[in-house]
Amino acid sequence: MNKKISLGLAISLIAIACAITYILTTAFSLNIFNGKISEVTDMAAKYERLDALDAYVREHYYGEIDEEDLTNGILKGYVSGLNDPYASYMTPEEYQESMSDDKGVMTGIGISVIMDESGYMLITEITDNSPAASSELAIDDIIIAVDGADVLEIGYVEAVSRIRGTAGTEVTLTIRRGGVDRDLTFVREEIELITVAGEMLNNHIAYIRIESFKEATVTQFNNIFNKLIDSGAEAILFDLRDNGGGLVSATEDCLDPLLPEGEVAYAMYNDGTSQVLVTSDAEECNLPMVVLVNENSASAAEMFASALRDFGKAQLCGTTTYGKGIMQSTIPLEDGGGLTITVAQYRTANSDCYHGVGLTPELVVESVDDELGTDEQLDAAVLLLQKSIQ
Description:
This protein has helices spanning about 5-60, 65-80, 90-105, 150-155, 155-165, 215-230, 250-255, 300-310, 375-390; strands at about 90, 105-110, 110-115, 120-125, 140-145, 150, 170-175, 180-185, 190, 195-200, 205-210, 235-240, 260-270, 275-280, 290-295, 315-320, 325-330, 340-350, 365. Strands 3, 4, 5, 6, 7 and 8 form a 6-stranded antiparallel β-sheet that branches. It has a 6-stranded mixed β-sheet with strand order 10-11-12-15-16-19, with helices on both faces. Strands 1, 13, 14, 17 and 18 form a 5-stranded antiparallel β-sheet that branches. It is an alpha+beta fold and about 400 residues long.
């Protein structure tokens, strides 16, 4: 038998339900509110400590305070507090230099320098097809002034920055050679860095050396790879020794013509999610391959080597790699600067993350004997490929 609920009882039940909902909602909101209050309190405490420190410094510091340097120092200090060895805050100038480096280009006159024992700048290398290469500059020349400013007075780091400058502008260097000083004026250019080199070794083994993975690396790699394949290469030796890594996107593009279609590498984030990081299309190279690595092969270089090994394309030769299997992301900031922080671990398709472990080669060869002019690791890799060809 059906029983009807009275109107009064229905209203009472609705009121009770609303009250319960209100209580639950209020409790949940209160928890969120209390959490936010705690966060604000902690943040306020941090700023109070900084404010107290700033007040004392401004009252007692003997020297003058450069507000821009102070702000940059605070931001750099914040990021250093993350204890992330790969994290950094970059000033606008540093951020632009970082972006140029990722592209594989540099703005300047095309020289490499080190600090001489006198404190001046010693030229150690001159880049081909650069303003410096077409001038009277020579290796071992000493730069004592930039645009009339003595290097010892402005400091080595500042002197390097002033030489780089902006493409299309002039810079005058005072050069000392054999005790004689003279001025040379250059027009700065944007110079593409050479990150890939290659040649055909004996027995039709293509040797490809990759210094790092930058945007410009992809075109250089494809040009050299295709040229050596067209010249009749029967095996490929990739040399990634002392390659500290670079861009994942450039690594993906260099791997693409070598690997079969599929997922190559994955990023694993702090929240437990993962994402496909590198893929390859159906075109692949079926020649025998060996990758030379050493203790300084790191990050994207390890990804390149591990991916080739995962797909059965290559064996590794040399010594255990550095072991950097974490990925950084760089973003621009409103002040024109940039922030780089570690955002994920990564691994290749059929291997565990190698961070802190490295990749151990199938053929371990410990040393490179530079004094005798021989390269034991290279010789061992070539022998391994010769056996594969036969």
